[in-house]
Input
Amino acid sequence: MNAAVTPDSSLARVRSHVLDAAGIADRDLERALGTLMRGAVDNADLYFEVSRQESWTLEDGIVKEGAHSIEQGVGVRAMSGEKTGFAYSDEVMVPALLQASAAASAIVRHGQQGRVQAWQPRPGHRLYAPIDPLATRSDDEKVALLQRIDSEVRALDPRVKQVVASLAAAHDVVLVCASDGTLAADVRPLVRFNISVIVEDGDRREQGYAGGGGRFGYDHFTPERVLDFGREAVRQAIVNLGAVPAPSGEMIVVLGPGWPGVLLHEAIGHGLEGDFNRKGTSAFTGRIGERVASDLCTVVDDGTLPGRRGSLNVDDEGTPTRNTVLIENGILRGYLQDKMNARLMGVESTGNGRRQSFAHTPMPRMTNTYMLAGPHHPDEIIASVSKGVYARNFGGGQVDITSGKFVFSATEAYRIENGRLGAPIRDATLVGDGPTVLNRVTMVGNDMALDTGIGVCGKEGQSVPVGVGQPTLRIDGLTVGGTGGDE
Amino acid sequence: MTARTALSLQTGLGTLQEKVADVLKLAKELGATQAEAHANFGTGFSVNVRMREVETLRHQRDQGVSVTVWLGHRKGSASTSDLRPEALGESVRKACALAKYGAEDPASGLADAHRLASSIPDLSLYHPWNIEPAAAIELAMACEAAALDHDPRVTNSEGASVSTSEGLRVYGNSHGFLGGYQESDHSISCSVVAAQDGAMETDYEYAVARDAADLPSAAGIGAEAGRRTVARLGGTKLETRTAPVLFPARVARGLIGHLLSAISGGALYRKSSFLVDALGRPVFASRVTIDEKPHLQKALNSAPFDNEGVATMERRLVDAGVLGGYLLGSYYARKLGMQTTGNAGGAHNVVVHSTGESFDDLLRQMDTGLVLADVMGNGVNPVTGDYSMGASGFWVEKGTIQYPVTEITIAGNLKDMYRQILGIGTDVDRRGGVLTGSILVEEMTIAGS
Output
């Protein structure tokens, strides 16, 4: 699918959609920024957002509910040194805008009036079409798609007892203008399909889950693609029906390709966000140029991948996203920056300034974080392990940025015995240390894959969509937290 | 300020009730058989200081209306943050349009009229804090200073925050119910970093209350943040073993939280719960008794009615180990052939009875084992109850803390862990929806090196 309009006409459209509709003229924006720049403010910005979302949920074979929501508002921010004043209003109107600006600028009391640069419309990438994804299928078609997948999935295996499936879409229109002359707009479609199944066999019951999506329309969800998600959910649940207790203790762990890249997101990515490193609270602080991984490892954060869930034409500060090398052949190369932390650290923003909505302040956040492919065939990697664990799929993860300790939970894993996959094992949490874990990577697969488009990253109470990916990896020493002993 | 921005805390309750009434009226005019609407409005601010300097001042102002309509037993819903009449009207029309696509579901509809709250008790949930940002900054400064000054090894900080918010909630439905109340939340928190031998650790302390008068001193919170952080320094891995595990009150809340998920109507109906068919059966050790107390004055999860307007009531969830009740709203209650328990939207103040021991008594009772500082991750399988979490804490011998441990996991199955509860402390943590003391579990697998 191709973007049908140029970035500039997209900006004009967004201005009319967001500002003209609310009766806000350029002079009002200038006045608001002028209010924000009162005192010793280094930089100020206004972030307008109009967001529409819908979701359709199927349970018991019927679509029980469609839900629709509209959120709109403006967030205003004034920054002075390390200080930030922030206010927002869910009324996109001139009085509310000026009132919020006055509140945000109250953080700085003294100093000279700052300067507002003339706006320079800043073209971003064209990674997705500026479409309204909610309108890419009729409501009848959305309902029919869910009903069809329900009956198809139940027909796959008689042990399937419950199917919950959902379709969701968001149409997010944003406009950023800042005292540094930034004027940027973005129309961000996002769709998602999820399916979870419960299977029963005798007195054992297990759950399986699959889903995916990205920045495109519902037309991505062809019947074949949706059925593939259904098959995957059923396959995972059936595998887990036969799972035995996971072993416990430190052992060789092979991680599968794709979504298991959540390891990189937790173990590496968060610790390289500029805010923690400016403050000196990350386990990676001050380690640029040092070896933090084996030389097989190159890790990037790339917000410029077309159509991906974590991609953005411009970030939420109006900076075009980039492909930033975090680790190159094992050497730590860079941090992820928003404007404020970049300014304070004397570097450029890397286009990673993101926020959950107009009601939240921007922070350095990941986009799509993944490890590049290596030389090994995945079969060769499994065959190299005499005893260990192969983790093929994960739930979520979490990291303590300061100590570097991270966890993530396997939802589909197997023992490896003498180079072959053995019995599936029950849910086990894996725990490790971010700055050292990648030094233990001894083999990297040639099968790099990105996840299917399901990632949600939480930081300081803010959620944003992200992507992860990696090839098959062999890690010589991760602690596996099962109940089954180390036999 | 224009008439369109006239919502305030003083006049807001009446205004929101009018908006809800308008929405319900329009839904009826558009042919809805039944309708309900929630409206909320909130305002407040938070300050954050870091390394003895002001870092952020955030003003918050939220509002929203959500409406659900039924055409027969077909349901649609819509929400908006724009409360102007034309936007509300659009939401009602959108909900009606969506309902046309919903399937007929006999269980779907409002709660039965006779279950709705007939009066709204005053639960003392609204205590505005008359504090200016400058005074809040001073408080945050005092809090962080106490943490930084607690120990020379506290070398860095994530900062200290003070926040205050007030809000209004209104719910109405086409049975004629229209109720609302005001509430407030205030908090102080602090998180610092300590360093030793090139390794850093962080921890935090916080307080939250409906009434700022109930908050402990900011300096006390800071000092506790400093103490907790320094205590983690020098952590080592444990060798893999089985041992008893003591969940301190703040971590024990999560252990009970898994119970609440497992006995909620949706999980039970979908059979995505390890406690399907457990009603009336022993689930916990017989020393465990748990109540739900929705009407505790000033408590964080108190509510006069649930998300469907159903009167909340005090009841016993677990009696001497036996599961006595589920958490049901009307929909899943009907699906399960039961009655709503006033839990649409969740539980309201879950109180775990103490078995009488202090935290130190529980340490002595454990003798040798692990006392947790924190658990990490989401390693609970809701269907099977399998539990595996990342953990940090302290190794205990002869009832005394020996040294900090880190980068380990604790694993078991919740069904076993609940039956193996040996004691529940008197040190109740009141900072959340679950009020429990520390919980001692007889045996878990600890994985380390």
Notes: The first helix of chain B runs from residue 12 to 29. The CA atoms of residues 32 and 441 of chain B lie 52 Å apart. The longest strand of chain B covers residues 154-173. Chain B touches chain A through 81 residues (CB under 8 Å).
